[in-house]
Structures are given as C-alpha cells and as structure tokens.
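Predict the 3D structure for this chain.
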Amino acid sequence: MRYEARWIIEEQDGATRAHLRFRTCRYQKAFPSISLIFRNNPIWRVDIQAGDVCHPNPVWAGALGLPPLVCGTHCHTWEDNRDHVARSTVWDLPARRALPEQMRRLPQVLPFMAENLNIELTPDQRSFDTPYKRDLFDLDES
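Done. Predicted structure below.
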C-alpha cells in the first residue's frame, strides 16, 4: 500500500501546472520519494533511501559523469534525463546522482529540491504532518 500527498505549486501568474508529489510505502515510511510533476509528467525526483540500497545507472549516464552504481538517497534531475526522455517512447528518469549522506529525511531534502528547482519555500513548508491512522478511518456518526 502506498501513501501519497500532493502540494500544488502556484506560479507567479497564478497558474498551477505543477505539483510536488510525495509517496511512501506503508512499510517504509522513512523512505519517501518526492517528485516534481509538470503537466502530468515527472521531471525531477528525489528518492530517500538507506545507504545500503543501491541502484544501477543506465550505461549512457557515464557520458554525463554519473557513476554506474548509486547507493542511498539520490536524485533524478531533468538535466540528466532530458535527452533520454526526448529519445524514448516511455517517460521515465533512469539517470540518478547521489546526494550527500546527511540528506536522509524530508526536512533536509525539501529545501534542497526547492533551491534546485527555483521554488520558493517558506519556513512553515519545510515538512508536514500526516494524519494519525485512527483519524483517517474515524467516521463521524452525528
């Protein structure tokens, strides 16, 4: 079971063509994924993962200076994946780059993403509380 939350991004002209999507698995809540979705397509993502979880990069990522294997928290940037998306019939972001080891939680990753994506993030937007499970299923019987 996956949990998902969305933060709508309001542009300066008031348009809302993008949002941040937060996803986590029921059994691995400490390791969410945060994606920038623009016009229904993912264009940037950070996967928070344990340091011993490793993923391979595609062979072509070596030409971008990316390592063949990335362990721990990492990001999938538009800059690294744009050419792949343009050549592919499937919209995905397979190239990844490692992030510093200390980026292991949402309050550390969110400001990093906002800075790299030129999103204004106010101090109260650096994290959010999820509802308690009992509140999700509490039925109002009045």
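The first strand starts at residue 2 and ends at 9.
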